[in-house]
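Changelog note: in this version the structure field was regenerated for every chain. One regenerated record is shown below for reference.
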Amino acid sequence: MNEQIKQAILDKIESYDTIIISRHIRPDGDAVGSTKGLATVLRDTYPAKRIYVVDEDFSDYLSFLGGEDTVEEAVYPTALQIIIDTGTENRISNSNYKKAKEIIKIDHHIDIKPYGDLVWVEDFRSSACEMIADFCLGFKDRLKISAEAATYIYLGMVTDSGRFRFEGVTGETLRLAGALLDYGIDYETLFAHLYIEDFSTLKLRSFVFDNIKITKNGVAYIYISEQIQKDFGLTLEAASNVIGDLSTIRGSLIWVAFIYNTTKKEIRVRLRSRFLGINDLAIKYHGGGHNMAAGATVYSEDEMYRLIADADELLGAYKSAHGDKI
């Protein structure tokens, strides 16, 4: 079935002269890598087509990859809109996407609220970039894959899988990543961009270790307030990355980072887990994502503490049924 969908997507791409590619708000490496990667492949393969990447948000973390395109509204009615790595319409970082003639959705999140005229969703994949790699390599006799395109796609696979450690990584994931490396990716420079940190980030990590809180049943959490962000000179994205510092506490199978969004006056939530699913919890709090990695939003500190209490109850029930795993 998916082979038919991929063929249908390629047929649609070949039938349009204008293609607009978009992703989700607060873009991460997978969102940026998948959109830039596919756009680069299509530009190289079809130089006569007009290929745009439109994103109304910005990722300071990935600014080394360059900016995106601006497209006039008048272009949309005759364009194909491809949206990648975005589970629900309210997270699409392109306010004009519905004006396109047709919409293709390519995504690896749980398909809670379907949208699009042609939909390819594989929620078992470790990243949307893994799907883009599968698509491009599957049609490598028809699509041109450059070192630049391979780098974008590989970047998303690496970052969304936690360097191939998270749920969803399979032998196929690694085979696709290996095939991309054969196109000449400069992974040493890429990893330097991704993982060398500012001193302010290291100081924040020290603060996080001193201020992590753990509930009765082992939910680890931290709240990065507006004042803390100011004290450490952090962007919202840099502050959000503290979630990774909570992941290695023995006995903690759920960890949560709350980050105050000064622009929207709300609290961004990043949820992660080991062994048990937290997507339903994220959905309850205005979010969603994957079984063990999801995002949410709360609108007050009271709501934040209700989420913590729900997470603690969830983890307590899991430990009662399964024992206290690592």
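Spot check on this record: The first strand starts at residue 18 and ends at 22. The chain has two domains: 2-194, 202-322.
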